[in-house]
Write a structure and sequence with these properties.
The structure is a homodimer of 201-residue chains. Chain A is α+β, with helices and mostly antiparallel strands. The first copy, chain A, folds into two domains: 76 residues, Glutaredoxin (3-Layer(aba) Sandwich); 106 residues, Glutathione S-transferase Yfyf (Class Pi), Chain A, domain 2 (Up-down Bundle), CATH 1.20.1050. The longest helix of chain A has 31 residues. The radius of gyration of chain A is 17 Å and the shape is globular. At the A-B interface, helix 3, helix 4 and helix 5 of A face helix 3, helix 4 and helix 5 of B.
Chain lengths: 201, 201
């Protein structure tokens, strides 16, 4: 069975759990604390062969370690209904995956972490900087999803799964998500898709 | 011929110019100013079909628009010597591409922009926040490239091209790059590869 080095509070880890669950792939979860560790041996196993030191990390049955949520989504998603087979449609998925890692996650996830998980309160200027960037990316998403059911094509793809990961946690980051009504409506659609799992479950 | 909506100061755009040049693919450059525009019609053409409003954007001869540097590198790189054909080696390239967009670019590129391209001086707390993150990602890269020639396998791939994009501009962001000697040595190797083009050229 696969092992998922996981964090129950991480949107990046949730993305992987969503896809594996939707694909019916069984996995064992090993929780890695974001605040450092009481179990150094577990952490050592997690970090072995993991040069970027990030969860989620998936270890395959043969011991191969896969990391970076975006790359993991492509590893398991390619060849399934969650990644289009048409080359240009697949490229649109890659574009949104890239935007998510480059713009959404570094704004919303970092602000949420600073406000809810970090040991120290963030500097107000840093908080304002991250809030402004978070609102900008949500505005881009809101404009695109208006009048669409999903981000690429007519059904759920890994682009939706990736973008859901942190955009649905924007309230934890103190963002007024109601200002982005199309995003909120798409979040509701995502919760109705088969194999949905919620953060913390 | 391809059209590249480009910014001569952008590391993200440089990545695309590097790969296209190395592959011998001709393209026409259209400069888009990072500070807004004196040519609204040009900007309108650039933004048409570009929901994330970012350079680089490549327009193919049939009018198809491709954006997000990471996705563009994969579009042109797949099937060439710049992306391994072995599935696991290709996955390692995707992991570094993801790390670059998720961790390197949002730290070094954003700090460099704030210090050298933005209209206002950044708040000192924001600058310190971004500097700390920049140094962390350079430390990860430095540890990995120590004793290696390239990031994945034994020759240059799009992982190297992507990571070169902003790491080699870290001095612009006020980072002491000499503290990361393995990264500096790899930068020198990258400059010696066939088809190298420098920022601003």
């Amino acid at each position: 069975m696969l092992t998922l080095y996981d964090s129950s509070v991480s949107g990046n880890c949730l993305k992987v759990r969503l896809l594996l669950t939707k694909l019916g792939i069984e996995f064992e979860r090993v929780e890695i604390s974001v605040r450092g560790d009481r179990e150094p041996a577990k952490r050592e196993r997690f970090l072995a062969g993991n040069p970027r030191r990030k969860v989620p990390t998936v270890v395959l049955e043969d011991g191969t370690s896969l990391s970076e949520s975006m790359a993991i989504l492509l590893w398991f998603g390619d060849g399934t209904r969650f990644v289009p087979s048409d080359r240009l449609e697949r490229q649109r998925v890659l574009e949104w995956l890239s935007f998510e890692q480059n713009n959404v996650e570094p704004a919303i996830a970092v602000l949420r972490h600073a406000l809810t998980l970090a040991e120290r309160t963030p500097d107000p200027a840093v908080e304002a900087f991250l809030r402004s960037r978070s609102e900008s990316v949500l505005a881009v998403m809101d404009a695109w999803i208006a009048g669409r059911e999903f981000f690429v094509g007519d059904h759920e793809t890994i682009a939706d799964i990736a973008l859901f990961g942190y955009s649905h946690l924007a309230r934890d980051a103190g963002i007024d998500l109601d200002a982005f009504g199309n995003v909120v409506a798409w979040h509701e659609r995502m919760r109705e898709q088969p194999g949905f799992v919620a953060l913390g479950s």
